Fold this sequence. Notes:
Elements: E1 6-11, H1 18-29, E2 37-42, H2 45-54, E3 61-64, H3 81-87, E4 91-94, H4 97-102, H5 107-119, E5 123-128, H6 132-136, H7 140-151, H8 157-160, E6 164-167, H9 182-199, E7 208-211, H10 219-223, E8 230-233, H11 240-249
Parallel strand pairs: 1-2, 1-8, 2-3, 3-4, 4-5, 5-6, 6-7, 7-8
Helix pairs in contact: 1-2, 1-11, 7-9
Amino acid sequence: APGRPFWVGTSWKMNGLPDDARSYAERIAAVDDWHGVLPFVMPPFTVLADVARLLRDSPVQVGGQNMHWDESGSWTGEISAPMLRQCGATMVELGHSERRRHFGETDETVNQKVHAALRHGLTPLVCIGETQAERDGGVSDLVLARQVRLALHGLTAAQAGRVMFAYEPVWAIGEAGRPAPPALVAQAAAGIRQELDRAADAPGASPLLYGGSVNLENAAPYAALADIDGLFVGRAAWTAEGYAALARAA
Ligand code: PEP
């Protein structure tokens, strides 16, 4: 949106062995002008500390792709907010549709994780989006409003304004995804923005990003939308060159 900071971030999902992760981080650490864009990368846990160390003196923020709501304890296989912080993360992605679909993530667990992230000084990036069936059934706006409300449940208005969101229509994500028409994104984003403004203490406080099959060819019309404050990119940003080119284009 004009006049507000613009974010460009990527989640590597389950990609990035140490050598590739380091060379990606070194390449984007060498970018000397981000032209006002706020950059962030979300690598897998196993390389997060390495990537964060290589990006320490750059404007690029680093985030985890998930975390647990508790600080420590008997939660085999999980990672906590303090662990992410210790690795150098400042952000955490929560509620991605792949986690909701394959790993049982719910609006309730996302909400618990949002609280934990804020408690520990991590900026949560909550992913929301309707499925194709929900869109066909005409309930997209209801679904999106409900996902926002439940993610922000129990937060003060000041806290709610510190939560970032990514609108990612489930049918637009990944290999099987089709890019969403910008007009559809504009309409959905306006509804989400209304809901965010109800929860936060200042209009426009919560950054709202768009994600789903964004690439160099289709990025500009999304970036130009009034209610969109950034792009959240998967596949097209899995190389340092791809990511840097998208940040430049935005
Ligand atoms: C995502 O899964 O968050 C995403 C935006 O992926 P892609 O860009 O690959 O569709």
